[in-house]
Amino acid sequence: MDHILLIACGSATSWIRKNLINARGGLYNRITQRIKLMPFNLYETEQFVQTLGTKLPQYQILELYMVMGGIPFYLKEIEKGKSATQLIDEICFSTQGLLYEEYAQLYHSLFKNAEYHIAIIEALAAQPQGMTRVDLSTHTKISEATLSRTLEELEECDFISIFQPFSKKKKEAIYKLTDLYSLFFLKFIKPNKGGGSHIWEQLSKQSTYAAWSGYAFENICMMHINQIKATLGIRGVYTKHSSWKFKGNDELPGAQIDMIIDRADQIIHLCEAKFTKENFSINNAYAAQLRLKKTIFKQATKTKKATFTTLLTTYPALQNKYYLEEVDNEITMDKLFKAEEF
Question: What's the predicted TM-score (pTM) here?
């Protein structure tokens, strides 16, 4: 009995941290190694899908990732010989599909008093650009102590992420729902239960798909910030990243930017994410929009740093005159599928 090795593993990260890592009893200061197993990134997902014998193009792997994230337990449901549309239909909308009823079971299996966690998740799902703690408290009516604990548990289990807005105080931090399956379930599965066969083929042609896919792609870009930095050649530069929103005032109109990469070497990337099935084409109106956003950002923040407009796209944008005038950098989908370098 002198040589006992205890290995504890599970999805309830917050429980493990509270009862084992931060335990005050016999396990105090006896933890020899901590391993936080993260979901697969796109590179690892592509490798995993190939081990299943499936040969899908990166665009369709990205579509699947937008629905179920990099969770191997979900990804193992992928079958060879089927398209992403077929797989999403069967896994998410069939009554026999793994993800058809997973949502409620997921939270209740991980958390005690899961109704608080679900209330926060659903509040954030309705506000894709995120909410402050004050907004969440007002919307959910959850007590301060319970709200603190619940937010901590959701962040610990990677359901939500916290972003510090550019040049804002810590108390103005933004909470965002970044669990891709939860977002997809609330947007499409829950309101379309019992909708019949081939429902995803129909839903993916509606305008709501464009809004959801854009936000999901933006989240995925945030998750792959290291691949983006490597592509920009700034892997060794200290950066902070977040989205940016300006409500507007008497002098300037409101503006919103998908992702800001604030570099320590006096450069800021204003990133615009565009999820499209074909090569994106910038027209005069969109070029004017990019130009206006940059102007508003510089005046509203009063930054002295150089600002670069950076496109995050699925396929390369057409390099027409508007592109050449307004775009400084472009990062395409294939760059997100690169292995992360350390």
Answer: 0.91
